[in-house]
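[Automated response] Your request has been received and processed.

Submitted sequence:
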Amino acid sequence: MARRYDVVVIGAGAAGMMCAAVAARRGKRVVLVDHAAKLAEKIRISGGGRCNFTNINAGWQNFVSENPHFCRSALSRYTAQDFLALVKKHHIAYHEKHRGQLFCDDSSEQIIRMLKIECNAGDVEWRMPCKVTGVEELDDGFSVGTDGGAIEAANVVVATGGLSIPKIGATDLGYRIAKRFGLNMIEPRPGLVPLTFDGPSWQPFVPLAGIALEVEVETGSRKAKGNRYGHFREDLLFTHRGLSGPAILQISSYWQPGTPIVLNLLPELDVAEELIGAKTTLKKQLGNILSQWLPARLAEGLLVANGFAPDARLPDMADAKLRKLGDAINRWAIVPTGSEGYKKAEVTLGGVDTRELSQQTMMANKVPGLYFIGETVDVTGWLGGYNFQWAWASGFVAGSSIE
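Generated structure:
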Protein backbone atom coordinates (compact mmCIF):
# COMPACT_ATOMS: atom_id res chain seq x y z
CA MET A 1 0.00 0.00 0.00
CA ALA A 2 1.24 3.48 -0.84
CA ARG A 3 1.82 5.69 2.20
CA ARG A 4 -0.41 8.75 2.44
CA TYR A 5 0.79 12.30 3.12
CA ASP A 6 -0.70 15.78 3.06
CA VAL A 7 2.12 17.00 0.80
CA VAL A 8 4.79 15.52 -1.44
CA VAL A 9 7.45 18.08 -2.31
CA ILE A 10 9.49 16.99 -5.33
CA GLY A 11 12.93 18.63 -5.21
CA ALA A 12 14.97 19.31 -2.07
CA GLY A 13 16.61 22.53 -3.21
CA ALA A 14 16.07 26.07 -1.91
CA ALA A 15 12.38 26.40 -2.83
CA GLY A 16 11.50 22.80 -1.97
CA MET A 17 13.03 22.84 1.50
CA MET A 18 11.48 26.22 2.30
CA CYS A 19 8.04 24.98 1.23
CA ALA A 20 8.38 21.69 3.14
CA ALA A 21 9.50 23.47 6.32
CA VAL A 22 6.65 26.01 6.22
CA ALA A 23 3.97 23.39 5.47
CA ALA A 24 5.27 21.02 8.15
CA ARG A 25 5.35 23.79 10.76
CA ARG A 26 1.63 24.24 10.02
CA GLY A 27 1.06 20.63 11.01
CA LYS A 28 1.01 19.10 7.53
CA ARG A 29 2.47 15.64 7.03
CA VAL A 30 5.21 16.30 4.48
CA VAL A 31 7.59 14.09 2.54
CA LEU A 32 10.47 15.65 0.60
CA VAL A 33 11.73 13.63 -2.38
CA ASP A 34 14.93 14.22 -4.37
CA HIS A 35 16.89 12.11 -6.85
CA ALA A 36 20.26 13.37 -5.60
CA ALA A 37 22.26 11.64 -2.88
CA LYS A 38 23.74 14.98 -1.75
CA LEU A 39 21.40 17.68 -0.46
CA ALA A 40 21.02 21.08 -2.20
CA GLU A 41 24.11 21.04 -4.40
CA LYS A 42 23.09 24.30 -6.11
CA ILE A 43 23.02 26.10 -2.77
CA ARG A 44 26.37 24.53 -1.89
CA ILE A 45 28.22 25.86 -4.95
CA SER A 46 26.55 29.27 -5.08
CA GLY A 47 28.42 32.45 -4.34
CA GLY A 48 31.78 30.72 -4.57
CA GLY A 49 30.73 28.42 -1.73
CA ARG A 50 29.42 31.23 0.48
CA CYS A 51 25.86 31.39 -0.90
CA ASN A 52 24.58 34.77 -2.05
CA PHE A 53 21.36 33.91 -0.22
CA THR A 54 19.32 37.06 -0.95
CA ASN A 55 19.46 40.68 -2.04
CA ILE A 56 18.10 43.35 0.28
CA ASN A 57 16.86 45.33 -2.75
CA ALA A 58 14.77 42.48 -4.21
CA GLY A 59 11.57 43.68 -5.88
CA TRP A 60 9.47 42.55 -8.83
CA GLN A 61 11.45 44.85 -11.16
CA ASN A 62 14.50 42.61 -10.69
CA PHE A 63 12.85 39.64 -12.39
CA VAL A 64 12.32 38.51 -15.98
CA SER A 65 9.03 36.84 -16.94
CA GLU A 66 6.47 36.83 -19.74
CA ASN A 67 4.09 37.97 -16.98
CA PRO A 68 6.35 40.35 -15.01
CA HIS A 69 3.86 41.34 -12.29
CA PHE A 70 3.15 37.75 -11.24
CA CYS A 71 5.99 37.61 -8.71
CA ARG A 72 4.91 40.78 -6.84
CA SER A 73 2.54 39.00 -4.47
CA ALA A 74 4.99 36.34 -3.25
CA LEU A 75 7.90 38.78 -2.98
CA SER A 76 5.82 41.16 -0.88
CA ARG A 77 4.58 38.38 1.42
CA TYR A 78 8.05 36.96 2.09
CA THR A 79 10.75 39.60 1.80
CA ALA A 80 14.53 39.60 2.00
CA GLN A 81 14.13 40.90 5.57
CA ASP A 82 12.00 37.87 6.42
CA PHE A 83 14.70 35.50 5.23
CA LEU A 84 17.33 37.56 7.00
CA ALA A 85 15.39 37.11 10.24
CA LEU A 86 15.62 33.33 9.73
CA VAL A 87 19.38 33.60 9.10
CA LYS A 88 19.79 35.62 12.30
CA LYS A 89 17.65 33.15 14.27
CA HIS A 90 20.18 30.45 13.33
CA HIS A 91 23.11 32.73 14.24
CA ILE A 92 24.63 32.67 10.75
CA ALA A 93 27.13 35.48 10.26
CA TYR A 94 26.77 37.31 6.93
CA HIS A 95 27.97 40.38 5.05
CA GLU A 96 26.80 42.66 2.26
CA LYS A 97 29.17 42.52 -0.68
CA HIS A 98 27.91 44.58 -3.62
CA ARG A 99 24.62 46.32 -4.35
CA GLY A 100 22.61 44.59 -1.67
CA GLN A 101 24.04 41.08 -2.17
CA LEU A 102 24.18 39.14 1.11
CA PHE A 103 26.65 36.26 1.63
CA CYS A 104 27.50 33.92 4.49
CA ASP A 105 30.74 34.86 6.22
CA ASP A 106 31.62 31.20 6.49
CA SER A 107 29.98 28.67 4.16
CA SER A 108 26.86 27.92 2.13
CA GLU A 109 26.65 24.71 4.18
CA GLN A 110 25.18 26.89 6.95
CA ILE A 111 22.15 27.75 4.81
CA ILE A 112 21.63 24.08 3.89
CA ARG A 113 21.92 23.08 7.56
CA MET A 114 19.48 25.83 8.57
CA LEU A 115 16.86 24.65 6.07
CA LYS A 116 17.32 21.03 7.13
CA ILE A 117 16.85 21.98 10.79
CA GLU A 118 13.67 23.90 9.89
CA CYS A 119 12.34 20.88 8.00
CA ASN A 120 13.22 18.48 10.81
CA ALA A 121 11.48 20.74 13.33
CA GLY A 122 8.25 19.98 11.48
CA ASP A 123 9.03 16.24 11.18
CA VAL A 124 9.46 16.35 7.40
CA GLU A 125 10.27 12.88 6.05
CA TRP A 126 13.18 12.62 3.61
CA ARG A 127 13.45 10.34 0.59
CA MET A 128 16.95 10.69 -0.86
CA PRO A 129 18.15 9.48 -3.26
CA CYS A 130 14.73 8.69 -4.71
CA LYS A 131 13.92 9.12 -8.38
CA VAL A 132 10.42 10.29 -9.33
CA THR A 133 9.04 8.47 -12.37
CA GLY A 134 5.75 10.32 -12.75
CA VAL A 135 2.73 11.94 -11.11
CA GLU A 136 -0.84 10.71 -11.58
CA GLU A 137 -4.09 12.29 -10.41
CA LEU A 138 -6.35 10.27 -8.09
CA ASP A 139 -9.93 10.93 -7.04
CA ASP A 140 -8.67 12.37 -3.74
CA GLY A 141 -5.19 13.62 -4.57
CA PHE A 142 -2.14 12.32 -6.37
CA SER A 143 0.10 9.30 -6.68
CA VAL A 144 3.79 10.03 -7.13
CA GLY A 145 5.64 7.13 -8.70
CA THR A 146 9.20 6.63 -7.47
CA ASP A 147 11.88 3.97 -7.72
CA GLY A 148 11.12 3.24 -4.06
CA GLY A 149 7.39 2.74 -4.59
CA ALA A 150 4.37 5.00 -4.96
CA ILE A 151 3.68 7.88 -2.57
CA GLU A 152 0.13 9.18 -2.23
CA ALA A 153 -0.70 12.71 -1.11
CA ALA A 154 -3.47 15.27 -1.21
CA ASN A 155 -1.03 17.83 -2.67
CA VAL A 156 2.10 17.78 -4.82
CA VAL A 157 4.61 20.62 -4.97
CA VAL A 158 7.01 20.61 -7.92
CA ALA A 159 10.30 22.30 -6.96
CA THR A 160 12.64 20.53 -9.36
CA GLY A 161 14.47 23.59 -10.70
CA GLY A 162 15.53 24.20 -14.30
CA LEU A 163 18.05 22.82 -16.77
CA SER A 164 21.10 24.82 -15.68
CA ILE A 165 24.32 23.10 -14.60
CA PRO A 166 23.44 19.53 -15.68
CA LYS A 167 26.60 18.17 -14.03
CA ILE A 168 24.95 18.61 -10.60
CA GLY A 169 21.82 16.76 -11.67
CA ALA A 170 19.49 19.26 -13.38
CA THR A 171 16.61 17.58 -15.22
CA ASP A 172 13.43 18.52 -17.07
CA LEU A 173 11.19 16.57 -14.65
CA GLY A 174 9.21 19.63 -13.56
CA TYR A 175 8.47 20.58 -17.15
CA ARG A 176 7.36 17.03 -17.95
CA ILE A 177 4.97 17.04 -15.00
CA ALA A 178 3.54 20.40 -16.12
CA LYS A 179 2.99 19.11 -19.66
CA ARG A 180 1.45 15.88 -18.31
CA PHE A 181 -1.26 18.02 -16.69
CA GLY A 182 -1.74 20.22 -19.77
CA LEU A 183 -0.09 23.39 -18.44
CA ASN A 184 1.32 25.87 -20.93
CA MET A 185 5.11 26.35 -20.95
CA ILE A 186 7.33 29.30 -21.81
CA GLU A 187 10.19 27.81 -23.85
CA PRO A 188 13.17 27.31 -21.48
CA ARG A 189 16.58 28.73 -22.39
CA PRO A 190 19.84 29.45 -20.56
CA GLY A 191 19.92 32.61 -18.42
CA LEU A 192 22.71 34.47 -16.60
CA VAL A 193 25.11 32.94 -19.11
CA PRO A 194 28.25 34.07 -21.01
CA LEU A 195 27.63 35.05 -24.64
CA THR A 196 29.67 33.72 -27.56
CA PHE A 197 30.78 35.21 -30.89
CA ASP A 198 32.42 33.74 -33.95
CA GLY A 199 33.37 34.70 -37.48
CA PRO A 200 35.94 37.14 -38.86
CA SER A 201 34.47 40.16 -37.06
CA TRP A 202 35.33 38.65 -33.67
CA GLN A 203 38.89 37.55 -34.54
CA PRO A 204 40.57 40.80 -33.37
CA PHE A 205 39.09 40.30 -29.91
CA VAL A 206 40.10 36.66 -29.34
CA PRO A 207 43.56 37.67 -28.00
CA LEU A 208 41.92 40.00 -25.45
CA ALA A 209 40.81 37.10 -23.18
CA GLY A 210 41.28 38.00 -19.53
CA ILE A 211 40.73 41.76 -19.88
CA ALA A 212 38.06 43.11 -17.52
CA LEU A 213 36.52 46.56 -17.12
CA GLU A 214 33.32 48.23 -15.93
CA VAL A 215 30.90 48.99 -18.76
CA GLU A 216 27.32 49.86 -19.52
CA VAL A 217 25.42 47.30 -21.58
CA GLU A 218 21.92 47.34 -23.02
CA THR A 219 19.73 45.36 -25.37
CA GLY A 220 16.19 45.59 -26.73
CA SER A 221 14.00 48.64 -27.08
CA ARG A 222 13.17 51.07 -24.28
CA LYS A 223 9.67 51.32 -25.78
CA ALA A 224 9.06 47.56 -25.70
CA LYS A 225 6.46 46.25 -23.29
CA GLY A 226 7.38 43.96 -20.40
CA ASN A 227 10.87 42.50 -20.05
CA ARG A 228 12.12 43.36 -23.53
CA TYR A 229 14.71 45.97 -22.54
CA GLY A 230 17.70 45.48 -20.28
CA HIS A 231 20.33 47.97 -19.13
CA PHE A 232 23.12 47.35 -16.63
CA ARG A 233 26.37 48.87 -15.43
CA GLU A 234 28.64 46.06 -14.30
CA ASP A 235 32.02 44.46 -15.00
CA LEU A 236 32.70 42.90 -18.41
CA LEU A 237 35.21 40.08 -19.04
CA PHE A 238 36.65 39.09 -22.42
CA THR A 239 36.97 35.32 -22.84
CA HIS A 240 38.45 33.09 -25.55
CA ARG A 241 34.96 32.46 -26.95
CA GLY A 242 33.23 35.76 -26.30
CA LEU A 243 32.15 37.92 -23.38
CA SER A 244 31.34 37.16 -19.75
CA GLY A 245 31.37 38.88 -16.38
CA PRO A 246 28.37 40.25 -14.44
CA ALA A 247 27.43 42.76 -17.19
CA ILE A 248 27.03 39.99 -19.77
CA LEU A 249 25.38 37.50 -17.43
CA GLN A 250 22.79 40.15 -16.57
CA ILE A 251 22.07 41.21 -20.15
CA SER A 252 21.91 37.60 -21.37
CA SER A 253 18.53 37.21 -19.67
CA TYR A 254 17.13 40.01 -21.85
CA TRP A 255 19.02 39.28 -25.07
CA GLN A 256 17.03 37.75 -27.94
CA PRO A 257 18.94 35.63 -30.50
CA GLY A 258 19.77 37.57 -33.66
CA THR A 259 19.64 40.97 -31.97
CA PRO A 260 22.58 43.14 -30.86
CA ILE A 261 23.85 44.10 -27.45
CA VAL A 262 25.26 47.62 -27.16
CA LEU A 263 28.33 48.25 -25.00
CA ASN A 264 29.65 51.54 -23.66
CA LEU A 265 33.25 50.75 -22.73
CA LEU A 266 33.84 54.22 -21.25
CA PRO A 267 30.58 55.29 -19.56
CA GLU A 268 32.17 58.36 -17.95
CA LEU A 269 33.61 59.76 -21.18
CA ASP A 270 32.29 60.99 -24.54
CA VAL A 271 35.25 59.68 -26.53
CA ALA A 272 34.55 61.52 -29.81
CA GLU A 273 34.07 64.85 -28.05
CA GLU A 274 37.23 64.34 -25.99
CA LEU A 275 39.36 63.43 -29.04
CA ILE A 276 38.06 66.19 -31.30
CA GLY A 277 38.55 68.74 -28.52
CA ALA A 278 42.14 67.62 -27.98
CA LYS A 279 43.25 67.66 -31.65
CA THR A 280 44.92 71.08 -31.41
CA THR A 281 46.78 70.40 -28.16
CA LEU A 282 47.64 66.68 -28.25
CA LYS A 283 50.20 65.37 -30.74
CA LYS A 284 50.08 61.80 -29.45
CA GLN A 285 49.28 58.58 -31.31
CA LEU A 286 45.73 57.23 -31.03
CA GLY A 287 46.90 54.03 -29.33
CA ASN A 288 48.69 55.97 -26.60
CA ILE A 289 45.70 58.24 -25.99
CA LEU A 290 43.16 55.41 -25.71
CA SER A 291 45.55 53.50 -23.43
CA GLN A 292 45.09 56.27 -20.87
CA TRP A 293 41.42 55.29 -20.59
CA LEU A 294 41.33 51.60 -21.53
CA PRO A 295 43.64 48.60 -20.99
CA ALA A 296 46.40 48.91 -23.62
CA ARG A 297 45.62 45.59 -25.32
CA LEU A 298 41.95 46.50 -25.58
CA ALA A 299 42.73 49.97 -26.95
CA GLU A 300 44.89 48.46 -29.70
CA GLY A 301 42.38 45.71 -30.46
CA LEU A 302 39.52 48.20 -30.84
CA LEU A 303 41.58 50.43 -33.14
CA VAL A 304 42.61 47.54 -35.40
CA ALA A 305 39.09 46.07 -35.49
CA ASN A 306 37.69 49.41 -36.62
CA GLY A 307 40.30 50.07 -39.28
CA PHE A 308 42.50 52.54 -37.37
CA ALA A 309 46.27 52.35 -37.12
CA PRO A 310 47.31 52.50 -33.43
CA ASP A 311 50.29 54.72 -34.40
CA ALA A 312 48.11 57.24 -36.28
CA ARG A 313 48.53 60.75 -34.85
CA LEU A 314 45.46 62.47 -33.42
CA PRO A 315 45.98 65.81 -35.27
CA ASP A 316 45.94 63.94 -38.60
CA MET A 317 42.48 62.43 -38.01
CA ALA A 318 39.32 63.92 -39.55
CA ASP A 319 36.50 64.69 -37.11
CA ALA A 320 34.20 62.23 -38.90
CA LYS A 321 36.74 59.45 -38.33
CA LEU A 322 37.03 60.31 -34.65
CA ARG A 323 33.23 60.22 -34.32
CA LYS A 324 33.29 56.74 -35.85
CA LEU A 325 35.92 55.72 -33.29
CA GLY A 326 33.86 57.27 -30.50
CA ASP A 327 30.83 55.24 -31.55
CA ALA A 328 32.94 52.06 -31.59
CA ILE A 329 33.81 52.67 -27.92
CA ASN A 330 30.70 54.36 -26.50
CA ARG A 331 28.11 52.55 -28.64
CA TRP A 332 29.67 49.25 -29.70
CA ALA A 333 26.82 47.19 -31.14
CA ILE A 334 27.56 43.48 -31.60
CA VAL A 335 25.35 40.48 -32.30
CA PRO A 336 26.20 37.36 -30.26
CA THR A 337 26.03 34.09 -32.18
CA GLY A 338 24.90 32.21 -29.09
CA SER A 339 25.68 31.47 -25.46
CA GLU A 340 27.72 28.98 -23.46
CA GLY A 341 24.50 27.05 -22.84
CA TYR A 342 23.11 25.30 -19.78
CA LYS A 343 26.50 24.00 -18.70
CA LYS A 344 27.60 27.56 -17.83
CA ALA A 345 24.17 29.15 -17.21
CA GLU A 346 23.39 30.02 -13.60
CA VAL A 347 19.62 29.84 -14.16
CA THR A 348 16.97 28.75 -16.65
CA LEU A 349 14.71 31.33 -18.26
CA GLY A 350 11.13 30.30 -19.06
CA GLY A 351 9.34 27.33 -17.53
CA VAL A 352 5.76 26.89 -16.36
CA ASP A 353 3.67 29.81 -17.67
CA THR A 354 2.71 31.90 -14.62
CA ARG A 355 -0.71 32.54 -16.16
CA GLU A 356 -1.41 28.89 -15.34
CA LEU A 357 -0.79 29.53 -11.62
CA SER A 358 -2.36 31.48 -8.77
CA GLN A 359 -0.01 34.24 -7.64
CA GLN A 360 -1.51 33.98 -4.13
CA THR A 361 -0.80 30.24 -3.72
CA MET A 362 1.41 29.02 -6.63
CA MET A 363 -1.24 26.32 -7.30
CA ALA A 364 -2.17 25.37 -10.86
CA ASN A 365 -5.53 26.99 -11.64
CA LYS A 366 -6.92 23.93 -13.39
CA VAL A 367 -5.31 21.20 -11.23
CA PRO A 368 -6.26 21.74 -7.56
CA GLY A 369 -3.53 20.51 -5.23
CA LEU A 370 -0.69 20.76 -7.78
CA TYR A 371 1.85 23.54 -7.10
CA PHE A 372 4.93 24.81 -8.95
CA ILE A 373 7.60 26.93 -7.25
CA GLY A 374 11.14 28.26 -7.67
CA GLU A 375 13.07 27.99 -10.91
CA THR A 376 10.55 25.59 -12.47
CA VAL A 377 8.31 28.64 -12.98
CA ASP A 378 8.78 31.38 -15.59
CA VAL A 379 10.25 33.85 -13.08
CA THR A 380 13.99 34.53 -13.33
CA GLY A 381 15.92 36.96 -11.15
CA TRP A 382 18.91 39.13 -11.85
CA LEU A 383 22.38 38.07 -10.77
CA GLY A 384 23.04 38.78 -7.11
CA GLY A 385 20.78 36.81 -4.76
CA TYR A 386 17.46 37.53 -6.47
CA ASN A 387 16.83 33.96 -7.60
CA PHE A 388 17.26 32.64 -4.08
CA GLN A 389 14.78 35.25 -2.83
CA TRP A 390 12.26 33.99 -5.40
CA ALA A 391 12.89 30.44 -4.16
CA TRP A 392 12.26 31.46 -0.53
CA ALA A 393 9.21 33.59 -1.39
CA SER A 394 7.50 31.12 -3.73
CA GLY A 395 8.25 28.24 -1.36
CA PHE A 396 6.85 30.16 1.59
CA VAL A 397 3.65 31.11 -0.27
CA ALA A 398 2.98 27.53 -1.38
CA GLY A 399 3.84 26.09 2.04
CA SER A 400 1.52 28.62 3.72
CA SER A 401 -1.37 27.92 1.32
CA ILE A 402 -1.56 24.13 1.19
CA GLU A 403 -4.76 22.79 2.74
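Summary generated for your ticket: The chain has a mean pLDDT of 96. Residues 386-401 form the longest helix (16 residues).
If you did not submit this request, please reply to this message.
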